[in-house]
Specification:
With 280 residues, the chain is an alpha/beta fold. It is built from eleven helices and seven strands. A seven-stranded mixed sheet has the order 2-1-3-4-5-6-7, with helices on both faces.
Length: 280
């Protein structure tokens, strides 16, 4: 198996390094500078020497760049890479462009999941990769050894791919927090207990059936219920609610669940909130 060197002991790099080590890959070195990175390397890669980046690179067949997106290219340019090596970054937003000019074979390999700072089970995770043709077999083998799978995204579609992930994950977080705050304001002592079964089922249904799984007042054309919601929500949450409700109205209008007249009533109601204005 290939020798792995890790540049940067961030949460993703150290967890992925630990998973590769568990899969049988020798991790020959890791670079770490901050106290947090050194502590993380000690926790997740206890038998791996902490070395300067050039020494990590020289001892590896695969150099894993676990550094912030904006410095991938700058860091790669400083490393003594050779044509016999692979250089792999973990950014979702970037493809191969930041690695242009390096002598190693470039790979963009993104694990779409969260890394809390400890060990992570990658079984069943579907990595997203961009790589030249001569690296495809290597990437597929590496990911398979982690118990994961891989999908391929073209270089020019990386930003769109990452936008989809961020829109789904980060904005879901905002939505759940706003929903929890609203329930707490309504006197619900444990919003998570109220939301968990509903959100879990909804997410599963949406991933399986898409828009067909939609239920609720908009799909039923219940304008008065939505108006009652907007009347009691705080302005920030009402604005988010109205924006998402507008997108939902468009979909249920397109698929024929509500008629044009009902859609127009929704539009008139929502426009007073989508810019954060108070209802007239």
């Amino acid at each position: 198996m290939e020798r792995i060197g890790i540049i940067g002991a961030g949460r993703a790099g150290s967890a992925l390094g630990a998973a590769l080590a568990a899969a049988g890959h020798p991790v020959t070195g890791v670079s770490a500078r901050s106290r947090a990175s050194l502590d993380r390397a000690a926790l997740l890669l206890p038998h791996v020497p902490v070395l300067p980046p050039d020494q990590v690179t020289a001892a590896a067949d695969v150099v894993l760049l676990a550094v912030p997106d904006d410095v991938i290219g700058a860091v790669a340019a400083t490393l003594p890479l050779t044509p016999d090596q692979y250089v792999v970054h973990l950014s979702g937003a970037h493809g191969l462009k930041p690695l242009q000019g390096t002598r190693a074979t470039p790979v963009a390999l993104h694990p779409p999941m969260t890394f809390p700072g400890g060990p992570v089970d990658l079984t069943g995770v579907v990595f997203t990769a961009t790589a030249p043709a001569d690296a495809v077999a290597f990437v597929e083998r590496l990911v398979k050894q982690l118990g994961a799978a891989v999908q391929w995204v073209a270089e020019e579609q990386r930003a769109l791919y990452h936008a989809g992930l961020v829109h789904g994950a980060n904005h879901l977080m905002t939505l759940v927090v706003q929903a929890s705050e609203t329930l707490r304001a309504a006197g619900v002592a444990d919003p998570a207990a109220a939301l968990r079964p509903l959100l879990t089922a909804t997410l599963d249904n949406a991933l399986r059936s898409g828009h067909d799984a939609l239920t609720g007042p908009i799909s039923r054309g219940d304008v008065d219920t939505v108006a009652a919601h907007l009347a009691v929500l705080d302005s920030r949450t009402a604005s988010t609610y109205a924006d998402l409700a507008g997108a939902t109205v468009e979909r249920v209008t397109e698929d024929g669940r509500i008629d044009g007249g009902t859609a127009a009533r929704f539009a008139e109601l929502l426009k007073r909130h989508r810019t954060g204005e108070a209802p007239r």
